[in-house]
Amino acid sequence: MPSNIVSQEGFNYRFQPSACESCGGACCTGASGYIWAKYPEIEKMANFLELTVEEFATMYLKRVKHRYSLVEKKIDNENYACIFFNETLKQCSIYPVRPRQCRTFPFWETFKNNEEEVRDECPGII
Predict the structure, then answer these.
(1) What gap in Å lies between CA 125 and CA 3, rounded to an integer?
(2) Closest by alpha carbon to 83, among 38, 117, 33, 41?
(3) At the N or C end, where does the chain have fewer CB atoms within 10 A?
(4) What pLDDT, in 10s, does the model give residues 81-109?
(5) How far apart are CA 60 and CA 69, in angstroms?
């Protein structure tokens, strides 16, 4: 079965999503950072988990100035993971409703000028 290869205008690389199956979640783990979520995304995630927005926010969000980020969990001394990264299955447990930041990876503006970084992180970059 041929794999779909994704490209996006303005980027010098393409992405092969089938690589995600063997990757182990490199884009969901690593150094601590922010996983930004806007209110409509928060509503979708809460509904998916059968929670109210308030319950979801209390359990899974942290406020960073005027924005919200999903919380992380510490895997070991140097690694963190998104709270929704399933370490056993090595995949996102809310994949159908994941935030835009996750849906647009690896086509982030920051990688346009730093292709080496995304190539190091993602085995699906071709």
Answers:
(1) 13
(2) 33
(3) N
(4) 999 999 999 999 999 999 999 999 999 99
(5) 8
